[in-house]
Give the backbone structure.
Amino acid sequence: MKTYICQICGDAYLGEDRPSECPFCGAQSHFIKGGAEARPIVNDKIELSEISQKNLEETLYLEMKANAIYLCMAGKADNYERKAMYKRLAKVELEHANVVCKLMGISLPPADTELCSDDDIENFQKTIELEEHATNLYAQFAKDATEQNIKIFFTALTRVEGDHTKLIKNYL
Ligand SMILES: [Fe+2]
Ligand SMILES: [Fe+2]
């Protein structure tokens, strides 16, 4: 068994092989480094530009909201697989919120509650809407960023939220 470290969230994955995605933040395998060579971007303490500050604040709001909505959807899901999937999505979005807070040097805000439908199909459609919005927004935020670590963070997140859209489309 080895220790792998995610360059985005900084969490350690313990296993034989590098996972295809970070199990915590969903970053792709090329962001996951073997042990000592890892330099997670979340540990870079840098002065943020005004635009990155604003973009990270909006990201924090969206990620906290997604976390709360997915927990609602997990509670309404028709079967255990869907429930477990939404619980995992909620955790991944909370991990994104955690990384944002570390980059901004603030503590995680208290969790909100959000409403959702009783119907899985409606919840899948709402999920796709949220994830597509996040994907487009984060692609723009990656372009806006002048700081290397913020650019890398939003580039990784663009892909993660895009992967979430693909995941949900498989249910429709
Ligand atoms: Fe990660
Ligand atoms: Fe996210």
User: Anything to note?
Assistant: Residues 46-169 form a domain with the Ferritin fold (CATH 1.20.1260.10). The pocket of fe (ii) ion (ligand 1) is lined by residues 6, 8-9, 11, 22, 24-25, 27 (CB under 6 Å). Strands lie at 2-6, 12-15, 32-34.
